[in-house]
Amino acid sequence: MVRKVKENVVYSEEFREVVLQAYPDSPKIKELLDANAHFLGRYLDDGCCHSSMLSVPIDKIIAAKETGKQLEFVDVLYEMASRQKLCLLAYKMWGDQWYED
């Protein structure tokens, strides 16, 4: 399927906020965002896990239980999941910014 690309795309403020929250420490993403670059989509695609699942090493799970740091570990997992959700949202929003359909 060939998608119809919008012309003269300027990223919305809402989209910019989501991207900057999802990737606060990426100068390359900020550069592409500021340039309203189509190639930003490639970075956003690479940065998100499309499976909606996180991968956690089993040794970290075992270590959290053995050291009694399960609650801290859950907090870390929550932060990881929240960030991935923002990354997924940023990629979805990018498509809405660039394509008609």
Structure characterization notes:
By secondary structure, the chain is mainly α. It has one domain (13-98). It has 5 helices and no strands. It has helices at 13-22, 27-34, 40-47, 58-66, 70-98.
Task: Write a short abstract of this structure.
The protein is mostly helical. It is built from 5 helices and no strands. The protein has one domain.
Which features does this protein show?
mainly alpha; 101 residues; elongated; 63% helix; 5 helices
**Which parts are unreliable, with pLDDT below 50 for 5 consecutive residues or more?**
none
User: Which quaternary structure do these chains form?
Assistant: single chain
Mean pLDDT across all amino acids: 92
Query: Quick one: biggest sheet?
Result: none
Number of helices: 5
Q: Give the % helix.
A: 55-70%
Structural shape? elongated
CA-CA gap between termini = 11 Å
What is the count of structural domains? 1
Structural class: mainly alpha
The overall strand count is 0
What portion of residues belong to β-strands?
A: under 5%
Tell me the series of helices and strands, N- to C-terminal. HHHHH
Nearest-angstrom radius of gyration?
A: 17 Å
Topology readout:
Layout: H1 13-22, H2 27-34, H3 40-47, H4 58-66, H5 70-98
